[in-house]
Structures are given as C-alpha cells and as structure tokens.
Amino acid sequence: MNQTGVRDGVPPRAATSSGASESWEFVIPTIVPRHGKALRHWCHPLGVPPANGGRFGHTVGDVTGIAAEPELFRRAVATLKSVQTRPELELTEVRPPQRLAPWAYALTAEVTGPNDELSTGRLVLLHDPDGNEAWAGVFRLVAYVRVELDAELAADPLLPEVGWSWLAEALEVSGASFIALGGTVTQTSSARFGDISGPARTDDLELRASWTARDAELAAHGVAFFDLMATAVGLPPVGVTLFGQRAGS
C-alpha cells in the first residue's frame, strides 16, 4: 500500500455527490505505524465484511453478512448520522474506501458561502474491532475539504496555518474526544490561457486530516466537520446574520 491507500496500483474508487467517479487516493492521508511498516486492512463497500480472505469478488454471503456488523460500529455510525446540520449543507452517503479497514462509512458534503464560494468535502469513518497500531484505537476519522478562495484570502502567506486552525478549533469547540490528529493543508492556483471558458485564475485550499476517536460517540466529530465546512466558505455561526444579509435570504 502506498501513501495514498493504493494497493497493487489500483486506487479505490468512490462516487461523488454529482454521480461522477473520483479516486479515494485524494482523501486518505498516510497512516503508518511508528516502526515504519504499513498496515494493510480491507473493508467491503457499504460496511459488508470482506469475503474470500479479503480478495475481490462478491457472493451471496457478502450481502447477508451485513447483519454481522459489530454493534460498536453500528452505534458509531448512528451517532454520526444523528447530527442536525445547518440547512446550507447538502449531505450524501457514498461508498466508503475498500482497503483501509474491516468496516467503513462515508459521506460527502457541499456548501456555498455568502459570496458564492463553494466548499466540498468528505468524511470517512474507519473501524477495526481488533484495534489498529497505527491509529492507537479502533476508530479513525478521515476528512477532506476543498474550498474556493477569493484573491485576497489566497494572497495571505499564513493561509495554510489559518486553514488548519479551522479544523483544530472546530474539534475543540465541539468537545470531540480524540487523539493523534494529523494532516496537510495545500493551496493550489490555476490560470487559464487561450480559448477556454472560466475565470482567468482560480485559487483553492485543500485540507486532508485524520484523527482517532476515543469512543463510539461521534456526534461531536460530525459537528466539528460540518462547522469546518461552514467556516471555510465564510458562513456565520447558526443564528448570526451577516451585515447586509436579511433574515431568511
């Protein structure tokens, strides 16, 4: 397995909210134990346990095996799905990555800010009932957020630090119980030339992060992720109205 979760040269795939196929290799940060040996874990899409020793292929047993989902995993997913999100957020459940843990759940999120900046993201829950040395626990949350930037914010030399602070503060404020937080913040710029539609220049920020939840109560982790999405596009806290913005607009 390489740094992006790809094994034998084949990246796991997942559907985006638009229905297009997109590689999970852009979502999953490196998770390697301290001794440097990568751990290989498998999971079947939609939470069904892997059949045939983790090899590819589907049988009737794969489908009926969903009843064998660990109770702890069921509870973790239920608490994550119980979060009441703000109305601007659009959520979609998608196929989780297939090679990172015995059990997984995933969703995508999309939100547009008051100045029409678009933020898209994915949140993946990984569960290994036997524990994972690299995670130092049995639950690992993996987050990916991409947000469009205006020119002024894109010019800020401290932008990566600011982007990371959005996540760190969201986790702290939510009260999520976690350890081993790590990740990267990447700023990208694209310029268009010649006969091509679209703005002459676009700037984006991409945040990839993962952390270990201490228990199966994941509502606060979901709140933190959704707050991160909102902060990235400049949405005010719930109940606060921006100057020049009428209530209900």
Description of the structure:
With 249 residues, this protein is α+β, with helices and mostly antiparallel strands. It has one domain (40-232). It has helices at 60-64, 71-81, 151-154, 159-174, 219-232; strands at residues 13-15, 21-23, 90-94, 103-112, 118-132, 137-149, 178-191, 201-213. The protein has a 6-stranded antiparallel beta sheet. A two-stranded antiparallel ribbon has the order 1-2. β1 (13-15) and β2 (21-23) form a beta hairpin. α2 packs parallel to α5 and α4 runs antiparallel to α5. It is elongated, with a radius of gyration of 19 Å. The protein starts with 12 loop residues before the first strand and ends in a 17-residue tail after the last helix. 34% of the residues are buried.
Keywords:
two-stranded antiparallel ribbon; disordered C terminus; disordered N terminus; elongated
Number of domains: 1
What is the radius of gyration computed over CA atoms, rounded to a whole number of angstroms?
Answer: 19 Å
The total of beta strands comes to 8
User: What is the mean predicted local confidence, pLDDT?
Assistant: 74
How far is it from the N-terminal to the C-terminal residue, by CA? 48 Å
Count, helices: 5
Overall geometric form:
elongated
> What are the secondary-structure elements, in order, as H or E?
EEHHEEEEHHEEH
What is the strand arrangement across the widest sheet? 3-4-5-6-8-7
Secondary structure layout:
Layout: E1 13-15, E2 21-23, H1 60-64, H2 71-81, E3 90-94, E4 103-112, E5 118-132, E6 137-149, H3 151-154, H4 159-174, E7 178-191, E8 201-213, H5 219-232
Antiparallel strand pairs: 1-2, 3-4, 4-5, 5-6, 6-8, 7-8
